[in-house]
Amino acid sequence: MASVKTRLIFRAAVDVFSERGFEKATMDEIAAKASVAKGTIYYHFKSKEDLFVFLVEEGTELLREKVLSHLTEEMSSSEKIREIVRAQLAFFTEYRDFCIIILRETWGDEARHREFRRMLVHYVQSIRQVIAQGVDEQIFSVENAEVAAWSLFGSTSITALHHLFADPAVDLLALAPSLQAIALGGLHAKEIT
Amino acid sequence: MASVKTRLIFRAAVDVFSERGFEKATMDEIAAKASVAKGTIYYHFKSKEDLFVFLVEEGTELLREKVLSHLTEEMSSSEKIREIVRAQLAFFTEYRDFCIIILRETWGDEARHREFRRMLVHYVQSIRQVIAQGVDEQIFSVENAEVAAWSLFGSTSITALHHLFADPAVDLLALAPSLQAIALGGLHAKEIT
Amino acid sequence: MASVKTRLIFRAAVDVFSERGFEKATMDEIAAKASVAKGTIYYHFKSKEDLFVFLVEEGTELLREKVLSHLTEEMSSSEKIREIVRAQLAFFTEYRDFCIIILRETWGDEARHREFRRMLVHYVQSIRQVIAQGVDEQIFSVENAEVAAWSLFGSTSITALHHLFADPAVDLLALAPSLQAIALGGLHAKEIT
Amino acid sequence: MASVKTRLIFRAAVDVFSERGFEKATMDEIAAKASVAKGTIYYHFKSKEDLFVFLVEEGTELLREKVLSHLTEEMSSSEKIREIVRAQLAFFTEYRDFCIIILRETWGDEARHREFRRMLVHYVQSIRQVIAQGVDEQIFSVENAEVAAWSLFGSTSITALHHLFADPAVDLLALAPSLQAIALGGLHAKEIT
DNA sequence: CATGAATGAGACTTCATTCAT
DNA sequence: AATGAATGAAGTCTCATTCAT
Question: What is the mean pLDDT of residues B122-129?
Answer without folding.
Answer: 97
